[in-house]
Amino acid sequence: MNETILILDFGSQYTQLIARRVRELNVYCEIHPFNKIPEDLSDVKGVILSGSPFSVRDSESPVPDLSNIRKKFPLLGVCYGAQFLAQDNGGEVLPSKIREYGRANLGFIDYDSLLLRGMTHNSQVWMSHGDTILNLPDDFNIITSTESVKVAGFKVDNEETYGIQFHPEVYHSTEGSILLKNFVVDICKCSQDWTPDSFVETTVTALKEKLGNDKVVLGLSGGVDSSVAAILLHKAIGKNLYCIFVDNGLLRKNEFEDVLHSYKDLGLNVKGVDASDRFLDGLKGVEEPEAKRKVIGNTFIDVFDHEAHLIQDVKWLAQGTIYPDVIESISVKGPSATIKSHHNVGGLPDFMKLKVVEPLNTLFKDEVRRIGRTMDMPSFILDRHPFPGPGLGIRILGEVSRERVKILQEVDHIFIQGLRDDNLYNEVWQSLAVLLPVNSVGVMGDERTYENVVALRAVGSTDGMTADWSHLPYEFLAKVSNKIINQVKGVNRVVYYISSKPPSTIEWE
Ligand code: XMP
Predict the structure, then answer these.
(1) Of the residues 3, 29, 30, 79, which is catalytic?
(2) Average pLDDT of the residues of the chain
(3) Which of 56, 116, 169, 248 could pair with 17 as two cysteines, CB 3.0-4.6 Å apart?
(4) What's the pLDDT at 445?
(5) Are 161 and 227 within one domain?
(6) Per-residue pLDDT at 346 exceeds 70
(7) Helix pair 196-211, 224-237: axis angle to 10 deg
(8) Confidence of residue 333 (pLDDT cuts 50, 70, 90)
């Protein structure tokens, strides 16, 4: 198994970022809620306590049981984690007199402390706390201070236990990664061998062992996660992996054929199933966005269930679940409220009774891409913009018809191809075209027209949770909008959509 840094989460918005930074050092880490510390700590080399929206002074504040951790592993408390350690051992934590948010500088650094080795005098750090440690317990020593925060960091005598009141994981702590490296490499003695290559090797070996000669079924979507999961499984079990790629009639222009071909080129045992009529017939008369999602989701389940049944003796269902989905489902805060139902509801179909294998469930999205690259997967698959499961179905506002799918496919194709041609495709995180449910008056030649309006959208984002509109060049927008109006029959107006998320969302439905 991997040498592991255990991160105990107290609900901070930055917890995932700590994990990202540790993994950037090629050290494996896992986030667990503070009150669900794993029993088996045999792979653990060190522990980090995260920040929290709570104050240690609240009666409801999260209190971890560190009896199996303290003095047994190197320990680093960040912000709330540091304040908890101080208070729990008899120190004093009180509300800060002055605001301690934003940039500060480490004016005092104890260079004998291994944690701070290599950091420069006045190094910039990021503070974000309403409380501050006023007095430390006797055996706790200050190792760094800022002008307004005397106890910016401490170490406990005779043990590798540290606390810092700033956030080393955020970008604005310019030498934060030096500190984290000091902790995980020099103090915890992790060997930094968790690389994409080693991940592929150990995962493939583990999958071989787990799956033996069993058959596995996997639904490919054309997206990065299911594709990388498929290639890993293919390396492990070859033809025993049965992939199913469903055409729901709501894919981009030529996407079904193009993606199917590239899967076949990769050697996958993949069956393309054209179920577009079923989906489009099912959507007749359905206008409400969530109702559309349900029709599409349920039809997918029916089609997939039928196809999975055709594979004799299949034992496993493989899924491309990634780590943020796992963290979300076990988080301290609980699964967040559903704004759009991205997952299906309803009765359990037969294929869901299969055993589940999720080879990517410890990885973040960009790590999935890195793994894909080390396995030589083509950029055509790895660098694609995210595309929602219900596809163009939620980009045709109101009722979906074959004719409207065709119009939107043409518009979308011109837009996406234009982005590629002008080297803008990789500059934006996601791009899309939306067919609005209104007609507008135009003039073409001497003719009055009364036709569709389309909206184009391109956004920058890191995870789709928040997003800002991309400032695409005016010349580009002029060029593609002209091309769309000239080439797509039925469209006489193009608008560019400039709301950010929040308060808007990325999709329109
Ligand atoms: P929103 O519109 O919620 O989108 O800002 C955030 C990200 O999620 C994608 N999205 C979906 N993906 N099924 C999916 O698989 C869905 O029903 C769905 N709705 C939105 C959206 O494309 C964006 O990347």
Answers:
(1) 79
(2) 93
(3) 169
(4) 85
(5) no
(6) no
(7) 60
(8) low
Q: Kindly state if the Cβ of 223 falls inside 6 Å of ligand 1.
A: no
Residues 371 and 422 in one domain: no
Q: Measured over all CA atoms, what is the biggest interatomic distance in the chain, rounded to whole angstroms?
A: 88
CB 338 less than 6 A from any atom of ligand 1: no
Average confidence (pLDDT) over 473-489: 98
Distance, CA 507 to ligand 1 centroid (Å)? Answer: 6
* Residue 365 Cβ contacting ligand 1 at under 6 Å: no
Question: For the chain, what is the total number of helices (H) and then of strands (E)?
Answer: 13, 19
**Which region, left, alpha or beta, applies to residue 212 given φ > 0 means left and ψ of -120 to 50 means alpha?**
left
Verify that 111 and 13 share a domain, yes or no. Answer: yes
Whether 169 is catalytic = yes
| Residues 440 and 319 both lie in one domain | no
Q: Is 33 contained in some domain?
A: yes
Closest C-alpha to ligand 1, atom 3: 505
Based on the structure, what is the number of domains in the chain?
A: 3
- Asked whether residue 391 is domain-assigned, the answer is no
Q: Give 352 Cα–ligand 1 centroid separation in angstroms.
A: 23
Torsion angle, alpha carbons of 272, 278, 454, 447, to 10: 110
In CATH, what number is assigned to the domain containing residue 321?
Answer: 3.40.50.620
pLDDT in tens, 66-118: 999 999 999 999 999 999 999 999 999 999 877 677 899 999 999 999 999 99
* CA 388 to centroid of ligand 1, rounded, Å: 5
Identify the sign of the CA torsion 113, 117, 121, 124. negative
Q: What is the pLDDT of residues 172-228, one digit of tens each?
A: 999 999 999 999 999 999 999 999 999 999 999 999 999 999 999 999 999 999 999
Quick one: 101 and 237 in the same domain? no
Domain presence at residue 508: no
Same domain assignment for residues 351 and 426: no
DSSP string covering 140-184:
EEEEEE-SS-S-SEEEETTS-EEEESB-TTSTTSTTHHHHHHIII
Which residue puts its alpha carbon closest to atom 4 of ligand 1? 506
Range of the domain at 212: 196-382
Among 320, 351, 382, the domain boundary falls at: 382
Average pLDDT over residues 7-19: 92
pLDDT digits (tens, 9 = 90+) for 121-154: 999 999 988 899 999 999 999 999 999 999 999 9
Q: Pick the last residue of a domain from 137, 164, 187.
A: 187
Same domain, 247 and 368: yes
Is 507 within a domain? no
344 and 430 fall within a common domain: no
HSE-CB of 176 using CA atoms within 13 angstroms = 24
